[in-house]
Amino acid sequence: MNDNGKGKATASLVLGIVSVVICWLGMGAIAAVITGIFGIVLSVQASKEMAAAGVSDSKTMATIGLVLSIIGLAIGGISFVACGLLVGTIGCIGCAAGM
Amino acid sequence: MLPFITVFGRRIALYGILTVAGAALGICAAAYLSRRRGLKRQDIFFASLYALIGMLIGGKFLFIITILPGLIARKAELYFGSGLLSSLLCGGFVFYGGLLGGAVSVRLYCRRYKLPLLAMFDSLAPGLALAHAVGRIGCFFAGCCFGIEYQGAMAVKINGVARFPVQLLESALLFALSGFLLVFTRKERAEGSAAGLYTAIYPAARFCLEFLRGDKLRGSFLALSTSQWISLVLLPLGLYLIFRQKEQCLKISALQRRKNMIE
């Protein structure tokens, strides 16, 4: 069934809210990044589908979903992103080896 | 080195803040260029977000590939559980993996919504260089991607060892490249020329900068690092894009001259 992106707009809003809520919870930042990514993709698809169909009633929902997903991804990213292959490799092997 | 700052009692990695700030600046630069390329600002914004997602996935993917030999060699000592997973996820990123992942995701976006791919790459190239430049300052603060041991001017101490500030040099070069591309795209240019310039200049610079890197645990093959091998592949691609566009421009202007003569 083609709903002109309304379902995707709702899903992106839900994922955006989840992303913003869990991004503060330690390792939940990783989950926030994942939900943020899906939220952004769904929101973009919803916006495009609504624009193509000339529908605008769920446009605000898609926009809020996009904004929340970006916020969740950004805050989650700040906590989760680490750089440095040296640090990463040592951390990875050390932690994985239970050191 | 200043890996963390404390905000409202929370310890936050400066690298993460600068990476996100760089991405935001890059997206703003790309959106600013949208009119020059005849693309909608919304499309540039959405494609930038797709690029960001592709970069996250691609950067992580190449990081895991790079450390895979080390993990296999120490397989017996590894404990497969949430510790390993979180270490892999939080461990690091490889820029070239991110670049390839970003390119693939932008291609998917342009293909799905029928947009000109090269014009999109041209719009994103200056922003990408800008985002990368800010991200490299983050590397400097985090103390990763460091340089060779060095005692001369501007040497920085990382974990007690004086090293060449290769992150800052790369950042300065990327700021210059971003500025150059922003000026270059002010005039009407053939499609793909800005992307071609980025794909030729950055790998050439990166190839040389790799000799100044001191973090030897990165993957290498036949005395060259993984990034140097990727640079060697990307450089001809960039040159091809530049000269292909130049050839097309020459053909178009010759055709125009012939048309004018007939008229």
Topology:
The complex is a heterodimer of chains A (99) and B (263).
Chain A: H1 6-22, H2 28-53, H3 59-80, H4 85-96
Chain B: E1 4-7, E2 10-13, H1 14-32, H2 41-73, H3 82-91, H4 95-112, H5 117-142, E3 156-158, E4 161-163, H6 166-184, H7 193-209, E5 220-221, E6 224-225, H8 226-262
Antiparallel strand pairs in B: 1-2, 3-4, 5-6
Helix pairs in contact in B: 1-2, 1-5, 2-4, 5-6, 5-7, 6-7, 7-8
Question: Could you explain how this protein is built, in words?
Answer:
The complex is a heterodimer of chains A (99) and B (263). Chain A has 99 residues and is mainly alpha-helical. Chain A has one domain. Chain A contains 4 helices and no strands. Chain A is elongated, with a radius of gyration of 17 Å. With 263 residues, chain B is mostly helical. Chain B has 8 helices and 6 strands, in the order E-E-H-H-H-H-H-E-E-H-H-E-E-H. The radius of gyration of chain B is 21 Å and the shape is globular. Classes of the chains: A mainly alpha (99), B mainly alpha (263).
Keywords:
heterodimer; A: 99 residues; mainly alpha; 4 helices; disordered C terminus; B: 263 residues; two-stranded antiparallel ribbon; 8 helices; 68% helix; globular
- Taking pLDDT < 50 over at least 5 consecutive residues as the criterion, the unreliable ranges of chain A are 83-99
What is the CA-CA span between the terminal residues of chain B? 68 Å
**How much beta of chain B, percentage-wise?**
5-15%
Count of discrete alpha- or pi-helical segments spanning 4 or more residues of chain B: 8
| E-strand count of chain A | 0
> Which outline of chain B best applies?
globular
Quick description:
By secondary structure, chain A is mainly alpha-helical.
